[in-house]
Structure formats: structure tokens, C-alpha cells
């Protein structure tokens, strides 16, 4: 029997930081992921092989491979951050940010700036404007970051990609986990962290049902990805690198613009479906920008899956693209698949947005769909990210519906790893912000001191009038 102190399923931000923070000896920690290693993912993307799967799975997860935004705020990207004081979340997020870009010259974190004019214009048209600090990375920087993180994790844990977890069950001393792929066998682990990302949410739902884990039904959001000329949303970016613009329609219905990027729009897999939810990070010379418009309108997960499956079947590559003028005129394209109420809300929001960013109505602007968020059930966990009633089993990241984005996912892994360290009688390791020396294993670090002088979270919320 192979015995471990910690087995992590999923090598995205949540799984990586759970392992880093646990402070356990490397030979007692194993991370597995059904996707490919960094170099293999790069090669597959370069030759156009399995692009949706390549973007969604593998070391680094979806975000660290394709989305170059590190958003530092307690107000977005997490359903658990509200449980902790904002200053505490802020300290963790800045520590994670420092580890992610350790040793790299990637410029300063972009703080929030003056936004009174933007906010006033948005408010006049019934929109609220949220801004926060963000670090934006281009494609080359993102790949260097992920590669360096992989090199670092190899001094902290054993790593096996293209390895799937096919069964997990409780045992007297922890958990029995059966693996298949490049690494085969049954492992007994005192602690298990399930962090499979959005791509593994379907598997986690089935596994959670088998283990009797409590959870809430998914509350999905459906929308589109707007793509236009470079800078067509620049008016919003004067105050923040990735702001949110929200229209609260009433009765719980909201339409929101988010995830602004200078990168190309790419398809990705999510629970067996093809969606347009992420973009590759911006590349030098790329002359298009984009942003996601999502609608929270009470659709259930089954309805959204059916709608997305219909779009997938109607398109050769699984997504539909139409010009914005065609979309605004109605008929055809996404109108044939989306509920009429939802497409009407999207059109009305775009017209409101055009009052803030007139370039949105540029003739070359296009709409990609389907864009989906929140399609995962939200599992019930303690403040330490442990599944309730299941000692030693932790859930972290986007897969269990707890987070959305790189920093939020990493923060959940940080919490799980710290809990495992405490219960193992070790000091939670605060990984040093310098690259480990090859061949030398650094022991557990001292408990982190409070970050005196850490900049404030810097979140500004400007509500709409009336």
C-alpha cells in the first residue's frame, strides 16, 4: 500500500497552494492531474490539438495557462472570503501574488485610480461600477510564471500529470484513492484535497454524491463574450485593470460586464460542454479586446446545460459567433438557442454600455457564445475548507463552486493547506519568495508574521442612482 500524508487531485492554483502551504515533506505529498504538463500543453496549443481540453486541464489549471489577470480583492472571485476579515483576506492574497510572480520582472500591481467621471456616467444609465487592484500578464509572462511554479512545486511534492482519480473512499486512517493513467495504483492518504477545477466539476459532483457530501444546487449565469477593436472598452480601464459594470434589473436579475482582456477568445471545455468563458492572455501586437457579459436570471443548471449543448451541436467548433449589429437586430444565431428574455437583457445592457464606451458599437465588434459561469454545485465546507462530517477531506477552488479565478482559487488552497499543516503538527509553510535551490529541500518556514504596512484592499463600489 502506498501511504501519503497528502494527496491533491488537481494541479491548478488551489491544488498547488494547498501543497505549498501544507509544509509536509515532499515525499509524503502527491499532486495528480488528468491534464498534461506545461510543455505538453504548450505544444498541443501550438499545433491546435484538442484546444478546449488543453485550455481547461493540466498543470496550472485553466487560469494560469490562459487568463493573465490576478485580481486582488475580497469582493469577487470567492464565495468564502466573506467569512474572514477583509484585511486578513487581503494579506493572504498579496502573499499569493508575491509567490506567483516571484523572481519575475512583470511590472507593478496596477492600483485603482480616479474613476469619478466613469462612475457618474455609469450611474446616469443605471449601472454600478466596481474597481480593484489587478495585475495583468501577457502570454509570455504567464507561461514563465506557470513554468517557474511547476519547478517550485517539484521541490515541495511529487507531481503526476495525465493521471486521473477514479475512486475515493474513507478508511480507518484516512482515505483510499485509486489512480489510473501515467501513475496507477491505490494510495492511502491521511488528507485529500479535491481541487479539480471547473473542468472536473462533473466528476466532483458524482464523487460528492457517492460520498454523501452536502452541497447547494448550482446557480449558473449565461451570457456572451464581446470582442471588438483594441481599446474599445478603454473608458472603463481608466480606473482599474479589470473593473465590473453591473445593471441590477430587479427581482434578483443582474447583467454584468467582467473579465476584460486584450487576449484572443478561445473555446474551453466545462463538464463535457464547450464554452467561451476565458481568453488567452494578451500577446504582443494583438489588436482585439474583449469582455464577458453575464446574466443572472434564475435559470437552473439543467436548462443551461441543454442550451449550451444545443449551441455546441449547431456549430462546427462548438461556439457561435455573430456580428454585434446582427445580434442587436435579433433573429438567428444565439437567438435560436437562448431564451428570448435573456437575449433581450443582453441587448439592453450593450446599449447602456455604449453610453459609457461608445466604441462598443464599432462595426467590427462581434459576439461569441455560449459564455457560462456558476455551472458547478457549491459544496458545503468549514472555514478550513474541510467537507463537513468528513475529516481529512478538503475541497478547494472552482470545481466545488467555492471560487472563480486564480487568486480566489489559490486562497482556498492556502486555507486547506494551512489546516492540514496544523493538524499534522507542523507549521504552515509560507513559501519563500525566492526560487528553491535545485536538490535542496527547504524545511517548514516559521509562522508568517502579520504583514504590517501591507496596502489596503482598495475596493471602491459606486452604486447606481435610484
TrEMBL record:
Composition skew (Basic residues), residue ranges: 423-435
Protein name: Putative FAD-dependent dehydrogenase
Top-level lineage group: Bacteria
InterPro entries xrefs: FAD/NAD-bd_sf
Taxon lineage: Bacteria, Bacillati, Actinomycetota, Actinomycetes, Propionibacteriales
Skewed-composition ranges (Low complexity): 436-450
Segments for region (Disordered): 423-466
Species this chain originates from: Kribbella sandramycini
